[in-house]
Amino acid sequence: MTTAPSDTPHGPHDPGGPHDGPESAQARFHALLRTFEGRPAATAGRAKDPVNAPMIRHWCEAMGDTNPAYTGPDAIAPPTMLQAWTMGGLSGHTDRSSAYEELFGLLDGAGCTSVVATDCEQEYLRPLRPGDEVTFDAVIESVSPRKTTKLGTGHFVTTRMDVHANGEPAGTHRFRILKYAPAARPRPASPPPAPAPAPAARPRPVINRDNQGFWDGVREHRLLIQRCTACRTLRLPWLPGCNACSSPDWDTVEASGSGTVYSYVVMHHPPFPAFDPPYAVALVELAEGVRIITNITGVPYDKVRIGLPVRLEFLRVDDTLELPVFRGGTG
């Protein structure tokens, strides 16, 4: 996202005077928006239901999460359900403050009538258990200066929610949206000749703070496997905590690079830009015992078989992307 000056005033709520330039008007409008920072979005909110086993079960079934920590008499709720207990549903919450609506009214009046969720961050302080009564307070944490994106021009609004269970701090949920004016999309009377299509780029992996170390290793031509320092269980793909003992502490071991095809599929259709079907996608079991989804190179797609020995190599896809793949027929 980049910051760009506006060519026009913001609208009827623009606090700038008639002699202000666009940049001065933007600064004044942003100063007005910032007066909402620190104002409550919800005060003494209360979840509509206590933490309960049926909701935990539905969540785990939807996510395909079979961790035994979420069942039985000592069950806890999956940490990522933190926001689920505070949602108001179709009927909403009656304890929501007017500040959020006032802020949105200003942005609507400035032409920022569209909204899109951009990201969220969660911090967990203690596990939630069935029977816990969940309460929360929310505050408008920040409103960004005017930003220009591919969707349009507007402001990022970040809300922080502090969640409590039976009065004890349980976690923090930050939610960020972009309130924007959609970019104009003029249509030329006669479209220019279409340029020759550029080669399609491979989809980029989503890199975040939970898997950054994995991709750092790939750049160094190392396939790193997480290892729980409490129970020594290996895990791949990377996770923020151990799925065997729930410990958040871990280190890494480097894979030897040898493995075998555990299962595979051959992709024929539909074609996808940057891929040339048919090709084989395999679940490779590494010598260390963990498995990774990857492409098989070095052998024709119709020669891939379960049990085929494979060896790690790194495939340079383009100038900015390199991926771990496995070459067949070695071992």
Polypeptide structure, described:
The chain is mainly beta and 331 residues long. The chain folds into 3 domains: 22-182, Thiol Ester Dehydrase, Chain A, CATH 3.10.129; 208-254, no CATH class; 258-331, OB fold (Dihydrolipoamide Acetyltransferase, E2P) (Beta Barrel). 13% of the residues lie in helices and 34% in strands. It has 4 helices and 14 strands. It has helices at 22-34, 53-63, 99-109, 212-219, and strands at 40-46, 114-124, 134-143, 147-148, 152-165, 168-182, 224-228, 234-235, 250-254, 258-267, 279-286, 291-297, 309-318, 321-328. Strands 1, 2, 3, 4, 5 and 6 form a 6-stranded antiparallel sheet that branches. Strands 10-11-12-14-13 form a 5-stranded mixed barrel. It has a 3-stranded antiparallel sheet with strand order 8-7-9, covered by helices on one side. It starts with 21 loop residues before the first helix and ends with a strand.
